[in-house]
Amino acid sequence: MRHLMSPLDFSVEELDKLLDLAQDIEADPAKYSHACEGKKLATLFYEPSTRTRLSHEAAMLNLGGSVMGFSSADSSSASKGESVSDTIRTVSCYADICAMRHPKEGAPMVACQHSSIPVINAGDGGHQHPTQTLTDLLTIRNLKGRLCDMTIGLCGDLKFGRTVHSLINALVRYKGIRFILISPEELRLPEYIRHDVLDKNDISYEEVVRLEDAMPHLDILYMTRVQKERFFNEEDYVRMKDFYILDRSKMKLAPEDMYVLHPLPRVNEIAVEVDDDPRAAYFRQVQYGVYVRMALILTLLDIHVD
Amino acid sequence: MVKNTLNVGRISEGFVLDHIEAGRSMDIYKYLHLDKLDCCVAIIKNAKSSKMGKKDIMKIECPIDFMDLDILGFIDHNITVNIVENEEIVEKKQLTLPKEIKNVIRCKNPRCITSIEQGLEHIFVLTDEENQIYRCKYCEEKYRRRS
Predict the structure, then answer these.
(1) Closest alpha carbon to B136 in A191, A84, A105, A163
(2) ipTM, 2 decimals?
Protein backbone atom coordinates (compact mmCIF):
# COMPACT_ATOMS: atom_id res chain seq x y z
CA MET A 1 0.00 0.00 0.00
CA ARG A 2 1.25 3.45 -0.93
CA HIS A 3 0.81 6.79 0.77
CA LEU A 4 1.73 10.29 -0.35
CA MET A 5 3.75 12.16 2.26
CA SER A 6 6.15 14.13 0.09
CA PRO A 7 6.46 14.88 -3.62
CA LEU A 8 9.60 12.76 -3.55
CA ASP A 9 7.60 9.63 -2.77
CA PHE A 10 7.18 9.26 -6.52
CA SER A 11 10.17 8.78 -8.79
CA VAL A 12 10.41 11.07 -11.84
CA GLU A 13 9.12 8.20 -14.00
CA GLU A 14 6.18 7.54 -11.67
CA LEU A 15 5.45 11.26 -11.59
CA ASP A 16 5.44 11.40 -15.39
CA LYS A 17 2.97 8.53 -15.42
CA LEU A 18 0.75 10.29 -12.89
CA LEU A 19 0.82 13.54 -14.86
CA ASP A 20 0.06 11.62 -18.09
CA LEU A 21 -2.93 10.08 -16.36
CA ALA A 22 -4.09 13.53 -15.20
CA GLN A 23 -3.82 14.79 -18.77
CA ASP A 24 -5.86 11.85 -20.01
CA ILE A 25 -8.51 12.59 -17.38
CA GLU A 26 -8.59 16.20 -18.56
CA ALA A 27 -9.04 15.06 -22.15
CA ASP A 28 -11.82 12.56 -21.41
CA PRO A 29 -13.34 12.97 -17.92
CA ALA A 30 -16.35 10.80 -18.75
CA LYS A 31 -14.10 7.76 -19.15
CA TYR A 32 -13.22 7.99 -15.46
CA SER A 33 -16.60 8.99 -14.03
CA HIS A 34 -17.35 5.56 -12.53
CA ALA A 35 -13.80 4.47 -11.73
CA CYS A 36 -14.23 4.78 -7.94
CA GLU A 37 -17.83 3.68 -7.56
CA GLY A 38 -18.32 2.21 -4.10
CA LYS A 39 -15.11 3.79 -2.76
CA LYS A 40 -15.04 6.38 0.02
CA LEU A 41 -12.61 9.22 0.62
CA ALA A 42 -12.27 10.57 4.18
CA THR A 43 -11.10 14.17 4.41
CA LEU A 44 -9.55 14.71 7.85
CA PHE A 45 -8.93 18.44 8.03
CA TYR A 46 -7.70 19.64 11.42
CA GLU A 47 -7.33 23.21 10.23
CA PRO A 48 -9.42 25.38 7.93
CA SER A 49 -9.04 24.92 4.20
CA THR A 50 -11.47 25.52 1.37
CA ARG A 51 -9.57 24.74 -1.75
CA THR A 52 -7.58 21.66 -0.81
CA ARG A 53 -10.49 19.93 0.90
CA LEU A 54 -13.00 20.71 -1.84
CA SER A 55 -10.49 19.78 -4.52
CA HIS A 56 -9.99 16.32 -2.97
CA GLU A 57 -13.72 15.90 -2.56
CA ALA A 58 -14.43 17.06 -6.13
CA ALA A 59 -11.79 14.64 -7.39
CA MET A 60 -13.40 11.67 -5.62
CA LEU A 61 -16.92 12.71 -6.68
CA ASN A 62 -15.77 13.08 -10.30
CA LEU A 63 -14.53 9.50 -10.09
CA GLY A 64 -17.94 8.28 -8.94
CA GLY A 65 -16.88 7.75 -5.32
CA SER A 66 -18.25 9.33 -2.15
CA VAL A 67 -16.73 11.50 0.55
CA MET A 68 -16.94 11.96 4.32
CA GLY A 69 -14.91 13.78 6.94
CA PHE A 70 -14.48 16.84 9.11
CA SER A 71 -13.25 20.31 8.28
CA SER A 72 -11.83 21.52 11.58
CA ALA A 73 -10.31 20.01 14.70
CA ASP A 74 -13.27 21.37 16.71
CA SER A 75 -15.68 19.13 14.87
CA SER A 76 -13.58 15.99 15.36
CA SER A 77 -12.58 13.86 18.32
CA ALA A 78 -9.29 15.78 18.38
CA SER A 79 -11.18 18.33 20.46
CA LYS A 80 -11.67 15.55 23.04
CA GLY A 81 -7.95 14.84 22.99
CA GLU A 82 -7.90 11.88 20.60
CA SER A 83 -4.51 11.17 19.09
CA VAL A 84 -3.86 11.15 15.35
CA SER A 85 -2.94 7.46 15.52
CA ASP A 86 -6.27 6.51 17.15
CA THR A 87 -8.25 8.66 14.71
CA ILE A 88 -6.67 7.06 11.65
CA ARG A 89 -7.15 3.54 12.99
CA THR A 90 -10.84 4.36 13.37
CA VAL A 91 -11.18 6.05 9.98
CA SER A 92 -9.44 3.09 8.31
CA CYS A 93 -12.56 1.08 9.21
CA TYR A 94 -14.86 3.53 7.42
CA ALA A 95 -13.06 4.72 4.29
CA ASP A 96 -10.88 3.39 1.46
CA ILE A 97 -8.49 6.35 1.29
CA CYS A 98 -7.99 9.53 3.27
CA ALA A 99 -6.59 13.02 2.86
CA MET A 100 -5.26 14.68 6.01
CA ARG A 101 -4.43 18.29 6.73
CA HIS A 102 -2.99 19.05 10.15
CA PRO A 103 -1.34 22.14 11.67
CA LYS A 104 1.39 19.99 13.20
CA GLU A 105 4.29 18.98 11.01
CA GLY A 106 4.59 15.23 10.51
CA ALA A 107 1.02 14.40 11.57
CA PRO A 108 0.21 12.60 8.28
CA MET A 109 3.43 10.58 8.74
CA VAL A 110 2.12 9.42 12.13
CA ALA A 111 -1.18 8.58 10.43
CA CYS A 112 0.38 6.45 7.70
CA GLN A 113 2.29 4.44 10.32
CA HIS A 114 -1.02 3.30 11.82
CA SER A 115 -3.28 3.30 8.78
CA SER A 116 -4.60 0.39 6.78
CA ILE A 117 -5.73 2.72 3.96
CA PRO A 118 -3.64 5.06 1.76
CA VAL A 119 -3.02 8.44 3.41
CA ILE A 120 -2.58 11.62 1.37
CA ASN A 121 -0.73 14.45 3.09
CA ALA A 122 -2.94 17.44 2.31
CA GLY A 123 -0.62 19.85 4.14
CA ASP A 124 1.15 19.55 7.49
CA GLY A 125 1.96 22.90 9.05
CA GLY A 126 4.78 24.66 7.26
CA HIS A 127 6.35 21.37 6.23
CA GLN A 128 4.96 19.70 3.07
CA HIS A 129 2.02 20.08 0.74
CA PRO A 130 2.62 17.42 -1.91
CA THR A 131 -0.74 17.52 -3.71
CA GLN A 132 -0.25 21.24 -4.32
CA THR A 133 3.13 20.32 -5.79
CA LEU A 134 1.54 17.76 -8.09
CA THR A 135 -0.92 20.49 -9.13
CA ASP A 136 1.93 22.92 -9.77
CA LEU A 137 3.89 20.38 -11.80
CA LEU A 138 0.89 19.51 -13.97
CA THR A 139 0.15 23.20 -14.48
CA ILE A 140 3.73 24.03 -15.47
CA ARG A 141 3.99 21.01 -17.76
CA ASN A 142 0.72 21.82 -19.50
CA LEU A 143 1.49 25.52 -19.91
CA LYS A 144 5.14 25.26 -20.90
CA GLY A 145 5.14 21.78 -22.40
CA ARG A 146 8.08 20.70 -20.25
CA LEU A 147 9.42 20.51 -16.69
CA CYS A 148 13.07 21.08 -17.52
CA ASP A 149 15.29 23.97 -18.66
CA MET A 150 13.40 26.74 -16.90
CA THR A 151 13.91 29.69 -14.58
CA ILE A 152 11.35 29.68 -11.80
CA GLY A 153 10.79 32.73 -9.62
CA LEU A 154 9.46 31.98 -6.15
CA CYS A 155 8.13 35.08 -4.48
CA GLY A 156 6.85 35.99 -1.02
CA ASP A 157 6.98 33.85 2.09
CA LEU A 158 9.73 31.39 1.30
CA LYS A 159 10.39 30.67 4.97
CA PHE A 160 7.07 29.19 6.06
CA GLY A 161 5.61 28.60 2.59
CA ARG A 162 5.27 24.83 2.42
CA THR A 163 4.12 24.91 -1.21
CA VAL A 164 7.42 26.50 -2.14
CA HIS A 165 9.45 23.94 -0.19
CA SER A 166 7.63 21.04 -1.78
CA LEU A 167 7.88 22.51 -5.28
CA ILE A 168 11.63 23.04 -4.95
CA ASN A 169 12.09 19.45 -3.80
CA ALA A 170 10.20 18.20 -6.83
CA LEU A 171 11.72 20.45 -9.47
CA VAL A 172 15.38 19.87 -8.60
CA ARG A 173 15.04 16.42 -10.11
CA TYR A 174 14.63 17.90 -13.59
CA LYS A 175 17.58 19.15 -15.63
CA GLY A 176 18.28 22.79 -16.32
CA ILE A 177 16.18 24.20 -13.47
CA ARG A 178 17.22 27.55 -12.04
CA PHE A 179 15.52 29.43 -9.21
CA ILE A 180 15.25 33.10 -8.39
CA LEU A 181 14.23 33.36 -4.74
CA ILE A 182 12.39 36.63 -4.17
CA SER A 183 11.66 37.43 -0.53
CA PRO A 184 12.26 39.94 2.25
CA GLU A 185 15.25 39.10 4.45
CA GLU A 186 12.99 37.82 7.24
CA LEU A 187 11.19 35.32 5.01
CA ARG A 188 14.15 33.81 3.15
CA LEU A 189 14.18 30.16 2.19
CA PRO A 190 15.33 28.10 5.21
CA GLU A 191 19.00 27.22 5.28
CA TYR A 192 18.30 23.48 5.30
CA ILE A 193 16.56 23.68 1.93
CA ARG A 194 19.23 25.91 0.41
CA HIS A 195 21.97 23.62 1.67
CA ASP A 196 20.45 20.15 1.56
CA VAL A 197 18.36 20.52 -1.58
CA LEU A 198 19.71 23.29 -3.80
CA ASP A 199 23.44 23.12 -3.04
CA LYS A 200 23.52 19.34 -2.83
CA ASN A 201 21.86 18.98 -6.22
CA ASP A 202 24.07 21.67 -7.69
CA ILE A 203 21.07 23.82 -8.57
CA SER A 204 21.72 27.37 -9.62
CA TYR A 205 19.81 29.99 -7.62
CA GLU A 206 19.85 33.64 -6.80
CA GLU A 207 18.27 35.46 -3.85
CA VAL A 208 16.80 38.89 -4.52
CA VAL A 209 14.55 41.26 -2.59
CA ARG A 210 13.02 43.26 -5.48
CA LEU A 211 10.46 41.47 -7.64
CA GLU A 212 11.10 43.92 -10.50
CA ASP A 213 14.71 42.72 -10.79
CA ALA A 214 13.63 39.14 -11.36
CA MET A 215 10.65 39.61 -13.71
CA PRO A 216 12.50 39.84 -17.09
CA HIS A 217 14.32 36.55 -16.48
CA LEU A 218 11.44 34.25 -15.55
CA ASP A 219 9.61 31.42 -17.29
CA ILE A 220 7.31 30.92 -14.31
CA LEU A 221 6.53 33.30 -11.44
CA TYR A 222 5.19 31.47 -8.41
CA MET A 223 3.58 33.95 -6.03
CA THR A 224 2.74 33.06 -2.42
CA ARG A 225 0.70 34.62 0.32
CA VAL A 226 2.26 35.66 3.62
CA GLN A 227 0.27 33.41 5.93
CA LYS A 228 -0.96 34.92 9.17
CA GLU A 229 -1.27 31.53 10.86
CA ARG A 230 2.48 30.88 10.51
CA PHE A 231 3.43 33.90 12.61
CA PHE A 232 3.61 33.87 16.40
CA ASN A 233 3.70 37.65 16.40
CA GLU A 234 0.95 39.81 14.83
CA GLU A 235 3.32 42.76 14.43
CA ASP A 236 5.68 40.77 12.19
CA TYR A 237 2.77 39.62 10.05
CA VAL A 238 1.45 43.14 9.49
CA ARG A 239 4.92 44.33 8.50
CA MET A 240 5.36 41.53 5.94
CA LYS A 241 1.93 40.97 4.42
CA ASP A 242 2.03 43.62 1.69
CA PHE A 243 5.72 43.41 0.90
CA TYR A 244 5.00 42.20 -2.67
CA ILE A 245 2.10 43.23 -4.87
CA LEU A 246 2.12 42.00 -8.45
CA ASP A 247 0.31 44.49 -10.68
CA ARG A 248 0.05 45.40 -14.38
CA SER A 249 3.15 47.58 -14.32
CA LYS A 250 5.30 44.74 -12.98
CA MET A 251 3.74 42.32 -15.49
CA LYS A 252 5.01 44.60 -18.28
CA LEU A 253 8.55 43.66 -17.24
CA ALA A 254 7.92 39.95 -17.78
CA PRO A 255 8.37 37.93 -20.99
CA GLU A 256 5.28 37.23 -23.12
CA ASP A 257 5.45 33.51 -22.35
CA MET A 258 5.93 33.79 -18.58
CA TYR A 259 3.05 32.41 -16.51
CA VAL A 260 1.97 33.44 -13.03
CA LEU A 261 1.02 30.69 -10.62
CA HIS A 262 -0.32 31.00 -7.07
CA PRO A 263 -1.47 28.23 -4.73
CA LEU A 264 -4.36 30.52 -3.61
CA PRO A 265 -6.04 31.97 -1.70
CA ARG A 266 -4.50 35.31 -2.55
CA VAL A 267 -4.95 38.39 -0.43
CA ASN A 268 -3.15 41.47 -1.77
CA GLU A 269 -0.10 39.95 -3.43
CA ILE A 270 -1.69 39.80 -6.89
CA ALA A 271 -3.79 42.81 -7.88
CA VAL A 272 -7.17 41.87 -9.35
CA GLU A 273 -6.23 43.81 -12.51
CA VAL A 274 -3.71 41.05 -13.35
CA ASP A 275 -6.47 38.42 -13.61
CA ASP A 276 -7.29 39.42 -17.19
CA ASP A 277 -3.70 39.00 -18.34
CA PRO A 278 -3.46 35.78 -20.40
CA ARG A 279 -0.34 34.93 -18.43
CA ALA A 280 -2.29 34.77 -15.15
CA ALA A 281 -2.68 31.01 -14.78
CA TYR A 282 -3.74 30.63 -11.14
CA PHE A 283 -7.38 29.76 -11.79
CA ARG A 284 -6.42 27.22 -14.47
CA GLN A 285 -4.08 25.84 -11.80
CA VAL A 286 -7.09 25.17 -9.54
CA GLN A 287 -8.71 23.08 -12.28
CA TYR A 288 -5.49 21.13 -12.82
CA GLY A 289 -5.52 20.47 -9.07
CA VAL A 290 -8.70 18.44 -9.41
CA TYR A 291 -7.36 16.41 -12.36
CA VAL A 292 -4.12 15.59 -10.63
CA ARG A 293 -5.90 14.57 -7.41
CA MET A 294 -8.16 12.29 -9.47
CA ALA A 295 -5.04 10.73 -10.94
CA LEU A 296 -3.53 10.41 -7.46
CA ILE A 297 -6.58 8.71 -5.97
CA LEU A 298 -6.65 6.20 -8.85
CA THR A 299 -2.93 5.55 -8.47
CA LEU A 300 -3.00 5.04 -4.68
CA LEU A 301 -6.08 2.81 -4.92
CA ASP A 302 -4.40 0.95 -7.78
CA ILE A 303 -7.44 1.38 -10.02
CA HIS A 304 -6.84 1.17 -13.76
CA VAL A 305 -9.24 2.42 -16.42
CA ASP A 306 -8.87 1.10 -19.96
CA MET B 1 44.30 0.19 31.85
CA VAL B 2 41.28 -0.41 34.09
CA LYS B 3 43.47 -2.14 36.61
CA ASN B 4 45.76 0.91 36.92
CA THR B 5 42.99 3.35 37.69
CA LEU B 6 40.66 1.72 40.14
CA ASN B 7 40.06 -1.93 40.60
CA VAL B 8 36.43 -2.81 41.00
CA GLY B 9 36.87 -6.43 40.15
CA ARG B 10 36.51 -8.46 36.97
CA ILE B 11 33.23 -9.24 35.29
CA SER B 12 32.55 -12.63 33.82
CA GLU B 13 30.28 -11.48 30.97
CA GLY B 14 29.29 -8.04 29.79
CA PHE B 15 30.90 -4.78 28.72
CA VAL B 16 33.67 -2.47 29.82
CA LEU B 17 33.20 0.99 28.39
CA ASP B 18 36.48 2.86 28.46
CA HIS B 19 37.60 6.34 27.43
CA ILE B 20 34.28 7.94 28.27
CA GLU B 21 34.58 11.71 28.46
CA ALA B 22 34.89 12.58 32.17
CA GLY B 23 31.50 13.26 33.71
CA ARG B 24 29.39 11.66 30.95
CA SER B 25 29.00 8.20 32.45
CA MET B 26 25.72 9.09 34.14
CA ASP B 27 24.31 10.22 30.77
CA ILE B 28 25.26 6.84 29.34
CA TYR B 29 23.73 5.10 32.35
CA LYS B 30 20.50 6.88 31.47
CA TYR B 31 20.61 6.36 27.67
CA LEU B 32 21.32 2.63 28.06
CA HIS B 33 18.38 2.42 30.50
CA LEU B 34 20.62 0.74 33.05
CA ASP B 35 18.39 1.95 35.86
CA LYS B 36 15.73 -0.43 34.56
CA LEU B 37 18.01 -3.47 34.37
CA ASP B 38 18.75 -5.84 37.20
CA CYS B 39 22.46 -6.15 36.53
CA CYS B 40 25.67 -5.22 38.26
CA VAL B 41 27.02 -1.84 37.10
CA ALA B 42 30.21 -0.13 38.24
CA ILE B 43 30.83 3.48 37.37
CA ILE B 44 34.24 5.02 37.82
CA LYS B 45 34.27 8.78 37.44
CA ASN B 46 37.28 10.97 36.78
CA ALA B 47 39.80 8.15 36.56
CA LYS B 48 43.31 9.20 35.59
CA SER B 49 44.07 8.82 31.89
CA SER B 50 47.37 9.46 30.11
CA LYS B 51 45.47 10.10 26.88
CA MET B 52 42.54 12.14 28.16
CA GLY B 53 43.74 13.57 31.49
CA LYS B 54 40.70 12.09 33.17
CA LYS B 55 37.97 9.83 31.96
CA ASP B 56 35.01 7.76 33.06
CA ILE B 57 34.82 3.98 32.88
CA MET B 58 31.80 1.72 33.18
CA LYS B 59 31.59 -2.00 33.80
CA ILE B 60 28.29 -3.64 33.05
CA GLU B 61 27.76 -7.27 33.92
CA CYS B 62 25.05 -8.75 31.73
CA PRO B 63 24.59 -11.18 28.84
CA ILE B 64 26.24 -9.58 25.79
CA ASP B 65 23.15 -9.88 23.61
CA PHE B 66 21.18 -8.10 26.30
CA MET B 67 22.02 -4.57 25.36
CA ASP B 68 21.88 -2.38 22.26
CA LEU B 69 25.03 -0.28 22.31
CA ASP B 70 24.42 1.54 19.03
CA ILE B 71 23.41 4.65 20.89
CA LEU B 72 26.96 4.98 22.23
CA GLY B 73 28.09 5.88 18.72
CA PHE B 74 25.73 8.86 18.89
CA ILE B 75 26.83 9.91 22.37
CA ASP B 76 30.56 9.66 21.74
CA HIS B 77 32.15 7.52 19.06
CA ASN B 78 35.52 7.72 20.84
CA ILE B 79 34.32 5.42 23.60
CA THR B 80 36.09 2.05 23.61
CA VAL B 81 33.65 -0.81 24.00
CA ASN B 82 35.25 -3.99 25.32
CA ILE B 83 33.08 -7.09 25.13
CA VAL B 84 33.88 -9.56 27.91
CA GLU B 85 33.17 -13.26 28.00
CA ASN B 86 34.60 -15.69 30.58
CA GLU B 87 36.41 -12.77 32.22
CA GLU B 88 38.36 -12.07 29.01
CA ILE B 89 38.00 -9.26 26.48
CA VAL B 90 36.89 -11.07 23.32
CA GLU B 91 36.14 -8.07 21.11
CA LYS B 92 36.72 -4.34 20.88
CA LYS B 93 33.70 -2.87 19.18
CA GLN B 94 34.08 0.02 16.72
CA LEU B 95 31.41 2.63 17.19
CA THR B 96 29.68 4.32 14.29
CA LEU B 97 26.86 6.85 14.14
CA PRO B 98 23.55 4.96 14.31
CA LYS B 99 21.24 5.46 11.31
CA GLU B 100 18.29 6.13 13.57
CA ILE B 101 17.96 7.06 17.24
CA LYS B 102 14.85 6.73 19.33
CA ASN B 103 13.90 8.74 22.40
CA VAL B 104 17.36 10.10 23.04
CA ILE B 105 16.93 13.62 21.77
CA ARG B 106 13.61 15.41 21.72
CA CYS B 107 12.37 17.44 18.79
CA LYS B 108 12.38 21.10 19.79
CA ASN B 109 10.17 22.30 16.94
CA PRO B 110 6.95 23.51 18.62
CA ARG B 111 5.11 22.86 15.34
CA CYS B 112 6.12 19.18 15.26
CA ILE B 113 3.49 16.49 15.87
CA THR B 114 5.77 15.03 18.57
CA SER B 115 4.88 18.06 20.72
CA ILE B 116 1.26 16.89 21.11
CA GLU B 117 0.84 13.26 20.08
CA GLN B 118 0.81 11.07 23.17
CA GLY B 119 3.10 8.07 23.23
CA LEU B 120 4.88 9.03 20.01
CA GLU B 121 8.55 8.13 19.98
CA HIS B 122 11.01 10.91 19.20
CA ILE B 123 12.90 9.47 16.24
CA PHE B 124 15.84 11.19 14.56
CA VAL B 125 17.32 9.90 11.32
CA LEU B 126 20.94 10.38 10.22
CA THR B 127 20.66 12.45 7.02
CA ASP B 128 24.21 13.72 6.65
CA GLU B 129 26.87 11.40 8.02
CA GLU B 130 29.79 13.65 7.09
CA ASN B 131 28.42 16.61 9.05
CA GLN B 132 26.82 14.38 11.72
CA ILE B 133 23.37 15.83 11.13
CA TYR B 134 20.20 14.13 12.30
CA ARG B 135 16.68 15.20 11.40
CA CYS B 136 13.37 14.57 13.10
CA LYS B 137 11.59 11.79 11.22
CA TYR B 138 8.34 13.76 11.31
CA CYS B 139 9.11 17.45 10.75
CA GLU B 140 12.75 17.25 9.54
CA GLU B 141 13.95 19.62 12.26
CA LYS B 142 17.74 19.51 12.31
CA TYR B 143 19.86 18.26 15.19
CA ARG B 144 23.60 18.60 14.84
CA ARG B 145 25.48 16.20 17.04
CA ARG B 146 28.17 17.85 19.11
CA SER B 147 31.61 16.85 17.91
Answers:
(1) A105
(2) 0.84
